[in-house]
Specification:
Length: 574
């Protein structure tokens, strides 16, 4: 399939050239009089977008009657936004509206950072249910495709897609321990990837700072990604380091792309930790040299100078081998605890110590599983350590033991100037690295990172309108057509006749994020309408009763007339 994407968009109105009879036919929906940003990155034009069924049938001048009309005068009309890193795996089971992201114009949630919701063994299902937090549900599916179809059947406002998790394939065969696969076991893991790709997965996703994903060595990852590549998919990774070994981690990602033949994307690119802020120049130089050599290396990011993950990212991975239950059991052993504390303080290069990079004052506690610990929400690790009269390292270990989980935290470890610089990179897309939420239970039982409510609106408000780091047309391209192209999506990501009608209408002068680290559960404003597969999922700024979201599948899906895996990645047009 040809996927030539970035052709010049001059003469956009001509895209609506059609026979007179078709031009006067009725539409199911017309968005009239808006400023159209078609996703190409070219100049905007004033005009209409006509929709019939689930497709765009007209862009430009769209005369004729429509069952529904949206007045978009004074507003921007753009392709729906793509969240390249969604953690809405649980939240869409709870609430299919996906409000915090729908209200920002997101029409596609892409999941699968390291772990995916399938394939699962019976033991994996048991442990997943046992480890659930505020959101609880039975797991009735086994494969990744079954999970995605479950969401579609249940009803979701936005489209859903997923990578297959490298760690998920690993745990299927090897469990959660620090072991290397035999050739036969690796073949079994590769077969799991192929099956997921044939069912529509977008590629292989890894997350290499966390156990058990961190136990996978480069050859293992290359083998799995080779299967994804020959099935038309890509590799996407939370790299092995974003701090002390950032440059070495980029080298590994590039090597996996070279060895597999598949394109690769860096999840949430950053230089983390004060000592590493100055490495961004060298990091970008590596990425751009690889791109210049012909490799398709891309990046994505969230628009905040703080990350959010768990206290597992503050401890060595060897102590976490075998799963959270074994991790906690080891931490209760005094000798093991002393060894862990020593490594946490030394910052050994064998693991990514985010707490050391942020400091105890820069580690904000936002999510607990144990109701008795929830009053600590919003305090820093330093505050809790002081209140308890212990060191920050002891406090972190105690909290993990008491909560029975990794404990969700925010790490303030990034430089705002680097964030602002990155948003303008031409190969940058965007992902929230968060779940779609709403300011109501069960979501409000915990705090969260403001990116769950503001990541995309913040790009358009702070970095486009206020700071002018990039144009609105370029921002729309990087929110829609570019990620659609990178993912190999069919007929999505552009305002173009024949494409699926995923459309967002917003006011560039008023769009605004409101979520803060202190009060994150606040919706963004400024998006008035969101159309998903031709239906209004958001109207006048509020969710409708429609749940038009669908499973979006990758190029290897055997349901496509030309789908299925090929001999190698070279057999695909990238």
């Amino acid at each position: 399939m040809k996927r030539v994407l970035f052709a010049a968009s001059a003469g956009l109105a001509l895209a609506c050239a059609q026979p007179a009879a078709a031009a006067t036919s009725a539409y199911d929906l017309v968005i009239r009089g808006g400023t159209i940003y078609d996703g190409s990155g070219g100049a905007a034009v004033n005009g209409d977008v006509g929709v019939k069924g689930d497709r765009i049938v007209c862009v430009g001048a769209c005369p004729g009657q429509a069952a529904k009309t949206v007045d978009a005068k004074g507003k921007a009309v753009a392709p729906g936004f793509i969240n390249m890193l969604s953690w809405s795996t649980d939240s869409l089971v709870q609430d299919g509206r996906g409000q915090s992201e729908l209200r920002q114009g997101v029409t596609l949630q892409v999941m699968g950072e390291g772990t995916s919701m399938g394939p699962l063994t019976a033991e994996m299902k048991r442990l997943e249910v046992q480890r659930q937090g505020d959101i609880k549900y039975p797991i009735t599916w086994t494969t990744l495709d079954e999970y995605l179809r479950f969401l579609e059947a249940k009803g979701v406002s936005v489209n859903v897609a997923s990578f297959v998790g490298a760690a998920t394939a690993r745990v299927n065969v090897l469990g959660e321990g620090d072991v290397d696969p035999t050739p036969a076991q690796l073949a079994e893991m590769r077969a799991l990837v192929v099956k997921a790709m044939e069912e529509g997965a977008l590629g292989v996703g890894s997350s290499l700072i966390y156990a058990p994903g961190t136990f996978a060595e480069t050859p293992e990852l290359t083998a799995l990604v080779t299967e994804a590549g020959r099935c038309g998919g890509m590799y996407i990774s939370h790299m092995r380091s974003e701090g002390a070994r950032l440059l070495e981690a980029i080298d590994e990602l590039i090597a996996i792309s070279q060895g597999s033949g598949a394109p690769a994307e860096i999840y949430h690119l950053k230089a983390s930790g004060r000592d590493n802020w100055g490495k961004l120049d060298a990091a970008l130089a590596k990425i751009e040299a690889a791109r210049a050599s012909g490799l398709r290396i891309t990046t994505d990011m969230y628009t905040y100078p703080a990350s959010s993950t768990g206290l597992d990212a503050a401890m060595p991975t060897w102590v976490q081998a075998g799963g959270v239950e074994q991790w906690i059991a080891r931490l209760k052993d005094p000798a093991t605890r002393a060894k862990v504390i020593g490594e946490m303080r030394s910052g050994t290069p064998d693991f990514e110590n985010l707490q050391k990079g942020a400091g105890a004052d820069g580690t904000l506690l936002v999510g607990f599983k144990n109701p008795k610990l929830k009053p600590l929400t919003g305090k820093t690790l330093a505050q809790v350590a002081k209140e308890r009269g212990v060191s920050p390292e002891d406090a972190a270990i105690d909290l993990v033991i008491e909560d029975g989980s990794r404990v969700q935290v925010v790490y303030f470890s990034m430089l705002e100037a680097n964030v602002a610089r990155q948003v303008a990179l031409p190969y940058m897309s965007f992902g929230s690295d968060a779940e779609a939420q709403a300011p109501e239970p069960p979501f409000t039982l915990s705090s969260t990172h403001p990116r769950a409510y503001g990541n995309f609106a913040r790009l358009l408000a702070k970095y486009v309108r206020d700071e002018k780091r990039l144009t609105l047309s370029e921002a729309v391209r990087k929110l829609s057509a570019q990620p659609a192209h990178n993912l190999g999506l069919r007929e999505r990501g552009r305002l173009k006749p024949g494409y699926f009608a995923d459309v967002v209408v917003f006011d560039p002068a008023k769009i605004q994020d409101h979520a803060t680290f202190e009060r994150p559960h606040q919706f963004a404003t400024g998006v008035s309408e969101v159309v998903v597969n031709g239906q209004l999922a958001l109207a006048n700024g509020e969710p409708t009763a429609a749940r038009p979201g669908r499973v979006v599948r990758g190029r290897g899906w055997t349901g496509w007339p030309d789908g299925g895996c090929k001999a190698s990645a070279k057999d695909w047009s990238w």
